[in-house]
Specification:
A: 3 domains; 15 strands; 33% helix; B: alpha/beta; five-stranded parallel beta sheet; 14 strands; 6% strand
């Protein structure tokens, strides 16, 4: 038997883009990007005449309280319903069942899994295609291994739809944790996972596969590159998976080496060339974090008060009027003076002592913790935490090493 | 320890109140003890002044006496031997310095600077020789280059501007965040974030409210539908009753009409509008009969006119022939009028042609002209011959011009050659190379003379240096005045003395005497050893100077010998140059200059003669070429002339054969040929015009004759041909007019006949219609018909009105009149109907108002929902929240990084201060700890650019200002002692001269300080001044060599204590 389906996750409809200010010139393009990504997923389903669509959690963020998100979801799923394509949904940590304070009538072909595990047959033209199993998050924090509830219920092709952190991926809350072995033990053919925003595939023992399609639209500078969903073609129990990009704006982290650059004008030209070469795709827009790197004579000029901000404003203006338009998320100065830190350390003196002390502190957890928990930092950290900013939660040794280098560079530059 | 210097003694000639005072000093610890005003500070100023220059005039520390000598001398023991440094008053305020060796030889001042290891004056005054009031002044000390560089450059590498860096970091930190601040950026961002979150809280749970409102909207929609149904039913009933109400009047009127119609006879078949139709028929019949009478009159008139136009006329019968003759005549009339003028013009043209032929001068008449051969072939032949003749003439002229040019060129070259020959003959016969050789000899002569003079000066200088080196020879230093054997003798004498004392006073006395004697001998041996050491150093210095002098003398002698060899070579060169020049070797420089001037003139003339020779040869060659050119031009001219003659004869023959003048030139022949051809063409044109004129005259005569003939045949009166033509034209116009009128009358006649037939038919039709109408109305005459017609009209009105009323009732009520009457009755008649209507209208008004309120609510709900569906506020707030969170995170990270950097700086600073202090500071730490008996453990300079000393006691750190005066002075003294030791190790040991600097120390610390002085004195000379007996005791306890200064010492010349 042959059929196909689309697997998407983490739509995060209408959630704000990090690093895109409310006054940004391309704001509208970014705001509509998550909606357009969903539209393109539905377009794909219609074009490929798939049997069903799987949405593996975090369709929207209840914190955003967006009515538009729910309306857009209903509108797009209605299109699928009209074409006779079913949709299966589980809710994740960002859109748990408890956060759904109202109901918006979804089409009858949409199956939303509840807090208890369910197993559903998928039929087409009177024939049974496969089985889809799923379970939604009842609340935000689910520490239970939900995959343990799944099991193979028959010889048909079986799909597990789950929002989970497989293998304790870093950078994501460790909700519904599970391992590849645990998933393999459930005996399903295809695990349609959500939660981790980076595309990944895990081949499981026994022939199954667990797939993270990633989120269909990158929302900040740490979600770079193509984003989309996975088109899965099933034939005689075997799957062929192909990634289909659906994002309309794309994020990039670009590094521009300063070596050999003599003037700010040349720097602007190089920056434009770099951005043009990397942001050539015909999308609605691109967002770029540009980091100036390396050592060069411009370092001192960039260190002047206001110089970097002025350069950033100029480049932002230029990029915004390009084709396609590019939003400069930020311009970071990662340049270094023409200074050999090893030589400084070897030469001794105060700067040598400083570097040695910085390295020693970075490896001394107790001393670093003592420094970090100084009264002001601690109270600031608590206030920030109340505001939802977790910048100062734990000591960060890399800041110390960086601080040492910066101070040395500072002293070096001030040496007449 | 590198060798330095110490002061062996001094002699004050005049300084302050000292005059003629001298004293010796030991190499170790010295104390000059004296009461107040004994001159201790004066002596310190004296020592500093002699070594580095007196203070400026007017300064208090200059100590210049009011009269007498000012200055004095120091005896120094240096690494290079003893020196006597003398500084006396002079023109300069610092005094005149002289430096002498031990044997009185004057030495350069650099000997003193070397001995002082080039220590700067300021550094020496601050660190090595200072007063009590200068001890506390660390600021000056720190600003001295020598010290500060030693302190700061070595160990503080990279942290020179650390305080500024720290300050900047602190400012950055303060600008980022303050726990209770408002302005710092992070505070501001957090405040904005709190505000945004507050607004978000106010917005509440938007989806929940959205769904709530949607439910409310659903309820309102249901209510709206129910209300609308009820309103529709009420409205229908109101409408029905209103219609019945409005039809009540029509129902009454309809009943009345029915009654009246039933009273009339049956008139259903009576013609509709019968009276009007009867009147119409009668009126039309009357009008037709009047038209018949008018038509008969018009037919009679048209018949008469047609008979008049049909009468016979000859012109009408021959009209076509007349029209043809007139047309032929009209065509030629214009031509006929121009014939006389054409004839006269042609005669004039023929005369002009004949006149032109005579003017050409050709021997032919008009017929001969036509017979001439002026064809294109003949013309081509003429052009060919004439062209060749003109080319030959041109070449002839060119050859003549070339011949004249060649002749002129040859003559000009001959003139130039003659002038050059003349000038060449007067110049002397000499070659430039010979003259240049003599000029080179003059240059060699001058150079050799210069070299000889310089050699002489160098030889004199070398001899002077050689003499000076020889004069500097010095005697060998004397041997030790105290031979070694004398010590042995002393020991023997001591033993002898002890033996004698033992024999006479017992062993105790013997031991005492022996000890004393041995001590004296020890002292003697020690003194001898010191003297021996000084003499040894002196002897080594003497030997070094002697070796230098020998090497210098040998070098000078070798240089003198090489000078002599070089002088001989130069003399040889001078002789050769003078013989080439023809001058004596001893000729003066003036003779040489005159000779050089004459050589320069000779060179110019020789070069000019050579150039003239080259020019003469060139001119000769050019003249020969010009002569050849002239001959060639002459030949060309002759050839061109012959060719021209031949062609001219050929042209003459050609012209003669064609009856043209044989003597004509080529251009004249061309012009004559063209004129002749043009004239012949004009003659041919005149002859053609004459033939055409004859033909036109014949045609015109024929047309005129035909016209006259036709006029006569028609009977028109004869006359001139023009008049006849006019008469014929008028007659033909008359014929045309009559024919047109006849056609019009005939057409009119036929139309009138047709109209008459039509009118007759109309009259018959009307008669029939009258009879038929009377028959339909059932009447025999018009009177009865008119009476019945009035009754029929009323019947029709009633019927029409009844139908209208029925239709209106049906339109208003939707019912026929019977049903409407029945419905009215059911509603209770008219009064019952009105009451029911009022009730229903009130009910409808109330329902409408409720519906309106529901719709308003629904609109508001819809608006709210739509607003929420498209609401940007929430999204904007969330974007702001995320942006502010990101900004706060970034700022907090920067803040943390800056605070970590500050903490890191503090730790690095402490570590650096502990581990990496310069050696001077380390030494100062040790010395200060010793001075304070361990009260303070360390001295350090804070990292960075703050040039201050700090001390630590293990608990906390102190700045110098925070210490008591005594402790502060101990700190600075310890630092100076450390600096002196460090300086001594690196550069050379210099003496320490301190003027009563221990007076603020407590006894313990003073004792410790003196101990440090004594320890320092092991390598450095220490000269201390004090007026305090307890300090003197301390110094004496440490073995200081004490010299007393009394208040009268200075005024007693030569009474200083001697060692």
């Amino acid at each position: 038997m042959r059929f196909s389906f689309v697997h998407a996750a983490d739509l995060h409809l209408d959630t704000p883009f990090r690093g895109v200010a409310s006054q940004a010139p391309l704001l509208n393009r970014f705001q509509s990007a998550t909606f357009q990504a969903l539209t393109r997923i539905v377009d794909l389903c219609l074009r490929e005449r798939v049997a069903f669509l799987l949405l593996a959690g975090d369709l929207f963020d209840v914190r955003d309280r967006s009515v538009r998100a729910r309306l857009a979801l209903r509108r797009e799923l209605t299109r699928l319903d009209s074409a006779g394509i079913q949709t299966f949904i589980v809710h994740g940590n960002h859109d748990p069942l408890s956060g759904d304070t109202g109901t918006l009538g979804l089409p009858s072909s949409v199956k939303v899994f509840g807090p208890e595990w369910e197993d559903v047959e998928v039929r087409r033209e009177g024939r049974r295609l496969c089985r889809v199993q799923g379970v939604s998050y009842p609340d935000v924090e689910v520490r239970e291994n939900l995959s343990a509830r799944f099991r193979r219920t028959g010889p048909d092709f079986s799909v597990g739809l789950l929002h989970t952190n497989l293998g304790g991926a870093e950078g994501h809350a460790n909700y519904a944790p599970c391992t590849s072995a645990e998933l393999a033990a459930r005996g399903l053919d295809y695990w349609a996972l959500g939660h981790v925003h980076t595309r990944a595939e895990h081949l499981l023992a026994g022939g199954g596969v667990a797939v993270y399609p990633g989120n269909p639209q990158g929302r900040h500078v740490h979600e770079t590159g193509e984003r989309g969903c996975v088109l899965v073609e099933v034939e005689d129990g075997a799957t062929r998976r192909s990634f289909v990009p659906v994002d309309r704006v794309r994020w990039h982290r670009l590094e521009l080496p300063l070596t050999g650059v003599r003037s700010l004008d040349s720097l602007q030209v190089l920056a434009r060339e770099l951005v043009d070469s990397r942001c050539a795709s015909e999308l609605d827009g691109h967002a770029v974090r540009l980091t100036l790197a390396g050592r060069g004579p411009l370092h001192r000029e960039l260190a002047r008060p206001g110089a970097l901000a002025q350069l950033e404003a100029d480049l932002r203006e230029q990029f915004a009027h390009g084709h396609p338009p590019v939003l400069l998320e930020s311009l970071r100065d990662g340049t270094r003076p023409e200074l050999d830190l090893d030589a400084v350390r070897a030469a001794g003196g105060f700067m040598g002592t400083l570097l040695t002390e910085a390295e020693a502190l970075a490896h001394d957890d107790a001393a670093l913790t003592a420094l970090w928990h100084d009264e002001e930092l601690a109270s600031l950290g608590q206030r920030l935490k109340r505001l939802g900013v977790d910048a100062l939660e734990a000591p960060r040794p890399e800041l110390l090493a960086r601080a040492g280098q910066h101070v040395v560079e500072h002293l070096h530059e001030e040496t007449p | 320890m590198k060798p330095g210097l110490h002061i062996d003694g001094f002699q004050v000639q005049g300084f302050g109140h000292f005059a003629g005072f001298s004293s010796a000093l030991g190499p170790g610890l010295n104390l000059l003890y004296g009461p107040n005003e004994a001159g201790k500070s004066t002596l310190l100023a004296f020592l500093r002044g002699v070594l580095f220059g007196f203070e400026k005039r007017g300064q208090a520390e200059r100590y210049e006496p009011e009269s007498g000598a000012f200055g004095g001398e120091l005896r120094l023991v240096t690494g290079a031997g003893p020196l006597v440094v003398r500084r006396l008053a002079g023109r300069r305020s610092e005094g005149e310095l002289t430096v002498h060796g031990p044997d009185g030889d004057a030495l350069p001042e650099s000997f003193l600077r070397d001995a002082l290891t080039h220590v700067p004056r300021e550094l020496f005054f601050e660190v090595f020789a200072f007063r009590l009031d200068e001890l506390s002044s660390f600021q000056n000390l720190a600003e001295q280059r020598g010290v500060s560089e030693a302190l700061f450059a070595a160990g503080m590498r990279g942290a020179r501007r650390l305080p500024e860096a720290v300050e900047r970091l602190r400012k950055d930190v303060d600008a980022l965040y303050a726990p209770r601040g408002q302005k710092p950026e992070l505070n501001r961002v957090m405040r904005e974030l709190e505000e945004v979150q507050r607004q978000l809280r106010e917005v509440g749970d938007r989806p929940a409210r959205y769904f709530e409102q949607r439910e409310a909207l659903g309820a309102r929609s249901a209510e709206q539908q129910a209300l609308e149904a009820e309103l529709r039913a009420t409205a229908r009933e109101v409408d029905r009753l209103s219609r019945l109400d409005s039809a009540l009047g029509d129902l009454t009127e309809l009943a009345r009409h029915h009654t009246e119609r039933e009273a009339l006879p049956p008139l259903e078949g009576f013609p509709t509008a019968g009276a009007a139709r009867l009147d119409d028929i009668l009126q039309r019949r009357k009008a037709y009969r009047a038209q018949q009478a008018q038509l008969a009159e018009r037919l009679a008139f048209v018949s008469g006119e047609l008979a008049r136009l049909a009468a016979p006329w000859p012109v009408r019968e021959r009209a076509d022939l007349l029209r043809a003759a007139l047309a032929a005549f009209s065509e030629r009339a214009e031509l006929m009028r121009g014939l006389p003028a054409r004839r006269a013009a042609l005669a004039a043209k023929r005369r002009q042609v004949e006149q032109g032929l005579g003017e050409l001068g050709l021997a032919v008449d008009a017929s001969g002209l036509l017979a001439l051969d002026l064809s294109a072939t003949a013309r081509g032949e003429l052009e060919r011959v004439a062209g060749r003749l003109e080319a030959a003439d041109t070449r002839c002229r060119e050859a003549e011009s070339a011949r004249a040019g060649a002749r002129e060129s040859r003559e000009r070259l001959e003139d130039t050659a003659a002038r050059a020959e003349t000038e060449h003959a007067v110049l002397p016969d000499a070659r430039p190379a010979q003259v240049r050789q003599r000029q080179a000899a003059a240059a060699r002569f001058r150079a050799a003379r210069g070299d000889l003079e310089r050699l002489g000066e160098q030889r004199l200088e070398l001899r002077r240096q050689l003499d000076s080196v020889r004069v500097q020879g010095e005697p060998a230093p004397a041997q030790s005045p105290l031979p070694a054997w004398l010590v042995g003798v002393g020991v023997a004498l001591a033993l002898l003395l002890a033996g004698v004392a033992g024999l006479q006073a017992g062993w105790l006395m013997a031991a005492l005497c022996g000890g004393i004697a041995l001590a004296l001998v020890g002292l003697l041996a020690h003194a001898r050893q010191r003297v021996e050491a000084a003499q040894h150093a002196h002897r080594e210095a003497h030997a070094a100077r002697q070796r230098w002098r020998q090497q210098e003398e040998e070098r000078l002698r070798a240089t003198l010998a090489s000078l002599a060899t070089r002088e001989e070579l130069i003399l040889r060169d001078l002789l050769g140059a003078s013989s080439d020049l023809g001058l004596a070797p001893g000729a003066s420089l003036a003779d040489l200059a005159a000779r050089e001037t004459s050589l320069l003139e000779e060179l110019h003339q020789a070069e000019r003669r050579e150039a003239l020779q080259r020019e003469r040869d060139a001119l000769r060659t050019q003249r020969d070429a010009a002569l050849r050119d002239e001959q060639r031009a002459e030949e060309s001219f002759q050839l061109a002339g012959a060719r021209s003659q031949s062609l001219r004869a050929e042209l003459g023959a050609f012209l003669e054969a064609r009856r043209f003048p044989a003597s004509a030139t080529a251009s004249t022949a061309r012009a004559l040929w063209s004129d002749t051809a043009a004239l012949r063409q004009r003659l041919q044109d005149v002859m053609a015009d004459e033939a055409a004129l004859v033909e036109d005259e014949a045609t015109c005569h024929e047309a005129a004759a035909r016209l006259q003939g036709e006029a006569a045949r028609t009977g028109l009166p004869p006359g001139a041909v023009e008049a006849v033509a006019a008469r014929i034209a008028a007659a033909l116009e008359e014929v045309r007019t009559q024919t047109a009128e006849q056609r019009q009358r005939e057409s009119s006649y036929h139309d009138l006949l047709a109209d008459k037939a039509l009118l007759d038919q109309h009259v018959r039709d009307e008669d029939g219609a009258l009879e038929l109408l009377l028959a339909k109305g059932g009447c025999a005459d018009e009177e009865s018909f008119r009476r019945r017609a009035g009754q029929a009209l009323r019947y029709a009105e009633l019927t029409t009105r009844a139908r209208e009323l029925s239709q209106r009732i049906e339109a208003l009520t939707g019912l026929d009149d019977g049903a409407a009457r029945e419905a009215t009755r059911e509603a209770g008649g008219e009064s019952g109907l009105k009451e029911a209507l009022d009730f229903l209208r009130e009910r409808h008004r109330v329902g409408s108002e409720r519906l309106k309120a529901v719709l308003t609510e629904q609109g508001a709900l819809n608006n709210q929902l739509q607003q929420w569906e498209n609401d940007e506020q929430l999204a904007t707030l969330r974007i702001q929240e995320e942006s502010l969170r990101a900004r706060a995170s970034e700022l907090a990270t920067r803040y943390a990084a800056d605070r970590l950097a500050l903490a890191l700086l503090g730790r690095a600073r402490r570590r650096f201060e502990e581990e990496q202090q310069p050696r001077v500071i380390q030494l100062a730490s040790e010395l200060f700890s010793e001075l304070t008996q361990g009260r303070y453990r360390r001295v350090f300079m804070p990292a960075g650019g703050e040039r201050e000393l700090r001390v630590g006691d293990g608990q906390r750190d102190w700045t110098a200002e925070q210490l008591s005066r005594g402790t502060r002075e101990q700190l600075f003294l310890a630092f100076r002692l450390a600096a002196i030791r460090d300086f001594g190790e690196k550069n050379g040991a210099l003496p320490l001269i301190a003027d009563d600097v221990l007076v603020n120390f407590d006894p313990e610390r003073a004792r410790a300080a003196v101990r440090l002085f004594a320890r320092l004195a092991e390598r450095h000379q220490v000269i201390a001044f004090t007026c305090h007996p307890w300090l003197r005791a301390q110094f004496e306890a440490e073995g200081a060599c004490v010299r007393e200064l009394s208040s009268s010492t200075a005024r007693l010349p030569g009474t200083g204590t001697e060692p």
